[in-house]
Amino acid sequence: MTTMTYREAMREAIRQAMRADDRVFLMGEDVGRYGGCFGVSLGLLEEFGPDRIRDTPLSESAFVGAGIGAALGGLRPIVEIMTVNFSLLALDQILNNAATLRHMSGGQFGVPLVIRMTTGGGRQLAAQHSHSLEVWYAHIPGLRVVAPATVADARGMLATALADPDPVIVFEHGGLYNVSGEVPDPSPADLDRAAVRRPGRDVTLIGYGGTVPTALAAADLLAADGVDAEVIDLRTLRPLDDATLVASVSRTHHAVVVDEGWRTGSLAGEISARITEQAFYELDAPVGRVCSAEVPMPYAAQLEQAALPQPAAVRAAARQLVGVDG
Amino acid sequence: MAKGDLETVGADAPAGGYVQLLTPDGDRVERVTGPDGTEYSVDFTDAEYRTLYRDLVTVRRLDAEATALQRQGELGIWASLLGQEAAQVGAGRAMRPQDMAFPTYREHGVLYTRGIDPIMPFGLFRGVNQGGWDPQEYKFNQYTIVIGAQTLHATGYAMGITMDGKTGSADGEAVIAFFGDGATSQGDVNEAFVWSGVYHAPIVFFCQNNQYAISEPLERQTRIPLYRRSSGFGFPGVRVDGNDVLATFAVTRAALDNARQGQGPTLIEAYTYRMGAHTSSDDPTRYRIASEVESWKVKDPISRLKAFLEKQQVGDAAFFAEVDEQAKAEAIALRERVLELQDPDPVTMFDHVYPHGSPEVDAQREAFQRYQATFEGSAH
Ligand SMILES: Cc1ncc(C[n+]2csc(CCOP(=O)(O)OP(=O)(O)O)c2C)c(N)n1
I need a surface site. Which of A7, A104, A146, A213 has the fewest CB within 10 A? Predict the structure, then answer.
């Protein structure tokens, strides 16, 4: 058992993958000398050299597209994009190319590419750095999308992603990098199941990435209200693990989804639909959703905090569902 | 005064030379012939020289104040222009009133030359509003964060000017797009070059090559000097000493005048150096050595103009002291006004998503207000 930060866990995962397999390399803006815009790759240039820790020209489309090509040629690229907002400059490469090539080649080949990107708000970086667009990627067949919420998953998910024969998007919530936690076992993480992070009987709070800590904090608040909340961490956003969700809701009969995306067209909407489809008669109340305000992310700190899902709002939504507030 | 072409001027120039009209020691080069035969020179009155000096000192002083405010926790972030004052003031003063600028996030010096109240961007960087100003009023567009995007906006704007019949004469309009060396790798920027070339758009692409894109040095973006990129797109490119306000003025003025008269685009590479951090979130000691920064100090844009003014007896000690005093007073006034900027009410986040609201946003605003009301009096 080792204790480390989420950032260090990501770094250890990259380091281990690169030591284990010569085909693995990292590329992106400022990943080399600078150690990555969020410090994830600090020190890796010194260990692996500039060929395998590659500072690229400033073009998202180019380094994602080149990542596809390198993967097709047998390498195992890890591409780092600074933020999900900037991944939009590479969306064509991701959607029209990486995600479709297996299908369009009649299964002749796939694109074993891992794309890591920071997501989420709360760091005062305004409307062009801070959105939560995970659902856009979770919408795309041909991709696997994961969102490590814990230090253990930050450590364990990369190896599994690299072993995947198809493109995997890894979302790292910017608010998690400094979080410390334990890594009980550095072996590859299973990506197929959601995880119950806190068991409870009265209501299921469902989050992913940055909203898992929010849901856990809300569960603490609810405990003081006498409401016993279960917290589920989705872990993988595509494909979704319906079974874990349905099993939990069948026990608690109430669900609130906590999603940093905008509510309209959100993952929260998709999850709500699935619960309604598969566990309608288990529900004692409609599925609740706590999402970001549908505005471009404000820059002002207090506006940004007001725009983001907060534990107090999750608590209020859960109290209403279970009837504490009458 | 010396005359020269690119081979003979600028002992400190990078290989291939650049247009320089004022050496780092403050000596005037009378005129320089550019790669395509264009002659560059300036013909300023003493008063105009003094104004340029005042501009440079003032924008540096305001920038230093912003850096200090950020360190004191009064601004969320600041992208300093330190070292790039001449490039920005030269280009900004070369614009005519009708010309339109499309800046990045670092063009505080250009903003100043457009006559915009320097407080404007501080609403943004302090995080109390979006810092907006009316681009049409000041002919200076909004700051752009997504690297390179504004070059396409500038291209479309320039295309529109032509469609409106506003080019083709000495009082025509022109557009200037600002971007960095890193931005030249983006597809958007290269596509803007293609478009501007194809449509012969009245645009000047003004690249401040400050040698770094965050931590990445120029060699991560290019193998050839950036100004030479233009030839592949079919329009001229010229490199200018970006620490020389006179040369930057001359080259930009010529390129803008060509554009307004219907001669099409020009790429200007203003060769300069980012003396400070990329932004206040950055620590440049992680990727560059102190001696490199030192070597650029001797090329300082302000000290060379000061030396020139002294040698020409255009400015004396009293003048320099008065400029410093005035810049300081402006900076202090700015600081006071920044500190007075009030935090906004959280409900204002729902403003300006659509011009006249929308059912979805309005419903969310109302729900938010109800939710906020549940906390009222909760301290009791
Ligand atoms: C599309 C996009 N990708 C990445 C970033 C993050 N980023 C902000 S500034 C910067 C470097 C820009 O360098 P350059 O164009 O040389 O301009 P400078 O900051 O040096 O003035 C990067 C990569 C961004 N803002 N937009």
Answer: A104
* pLDDT tens digits, one per residue of A208-264: 999 999 999 999 999 999 999 999 999 999 999 999 999 999 999 999 999 999 999
Contacts of B188 in chain A (CB under 8 A): 89
Residues B165-223: tens digit of each pLDDT? 999 999 999 999 999 999 999 999 999 999 999 999 999 999 999 999 999 999 999 99
A82 in the same domain as A219: no
Q: Would A250 be classed as within a structural domain?
A: yes
A189 domain residue, yes or no = no
Q: What is the ipTM of this complex?
A: 0.93
Known catalytic residues of A? 60, 129
**Euclidean distance between CA atoms A87 and A64, whole angstroms:** 9
Contacts of B342 in chain A (CB under 8 A): none
pLDDT at B380 over 60: no
pLDDT digits (tens, 9 = 90+) for A46-78: 999 999 999 999 999 999 999 999 999 999 999
CATH (domain of A242): 3.40.50.920
Q: In this structure, how many other beta carbons lie within 10 angstroms of the beta carbon of residue B129?
A: 20
Whether residue A295 and residue B353 make contact (CB cut-off 8 A), yes or no, is yes
Residues A237 and A120 in one domain: no
Q: What is the pTM of this model?
A: 0.95
Residue A292 lies in a domain: yes
Cβ pair A71, A23 in contact under 8 A: no
Is position A188 within any domain? Answer: no
For residue B280, give the nearest of B65, B115, B70 by alpha carbon. B70
How far apart, in whole angstroms, are the C-alpha atoms of residue B177 and residue B190?
A: 13
Domain boundary among A161, A183, A205: A183
How far, in Å, CA of B156 to CA of B195, rounded?
A: 9
Q: Are residues A149 and A216 in the same domain?
A: no
Q: Looking up tokens 């300023």, which residue turns up?
A: B44
Shortest Cα distance, chain A CAs vs residue B269, angstroms: 17
CB A89 near ligand 1, within 6 Å: yes
Domain span including residue A255: 195-322
